[in-house]
Design brief:
- The chain is an alpha+beta fold and about 150 residues long.
- The chain has one domain (about 1-10, about 20-135).
- It has helices at about 40-50, 90-100, and strands at about 1-10, 30-35, 60-65, 70, 105-110, 115-120, 130-135.
- The longest helix is centred in the middle third of the chain and has 13 residues, at about 90-100.
- It is globular and about 45 Å long.
Length: about 150
């Protein structure tokens, strides 16, 4: 499967987590937060920053990820999973799944947009070593990729 994330240019070739906690994980459970389309990376950035622009110094990273995914339905999620601010329960739920490492990718319903998914790639899963970076490119047409990929 092909998945995407927006990452700072100086870190875009690293296969590492941000080291920060998020809605679905504690900082101690490393994972990549990725999307199924590059445009969703931009939407997520706008939702988080409120800037409605591409932050300077960021690139889109396209990954080829082994097909090992578990789809989490809304019915499986803790109460309040779609609230902002989100609670401790969502981190506890997602981190527990990451620690079980049943599948490489966890797919959660997007709390912001219906019919969209948020994906977490478990960097502790054995298949994480098989993830390949296919391309790195700027999210807009004005900038050039440093790699030429």
């Amino acid at each position: 499967m092909i998945l995407y994330r927006m990452a700072k240019e100086d870190r875009c070739r690293e296969m590492s987590a941000s080291g920060k906690a998020d809605r679905w994980n504690f900082a101690t459970d490393p994972c990549l937060h990725v999307k199924d389309h590059p445009a969703m990376c931009l939407v997520e950035s706008d939702l988080v920053t409120g800037l409605f622009t591409v932050p300077d110094g960021y690139m889109i990273v396209e990954y080829d990820v082994p097909d090992s995914i578990i789809w989490i339905s809304e019915e499986q999620l803790p109460v309040g999973w779609d609230q902002f601010p989100f609670g401790f329960e969502t981190r506890e739920f997602g981190s527990a799944l990451l620690r079980q490492a049943e599948k490489l990718v966890l797919a959660f319903p997007s709390p912001e947009m219906s019919h969209q998914w948020n994906y977490l790639v478990n960097l502790r899963h054995p298949l994480a070593n098989e993830i390949k970076i296919k391309k790195v490119y700027p999210p807009n047409r004005k900038k050039q990729s440093p790699s030429g990929m």
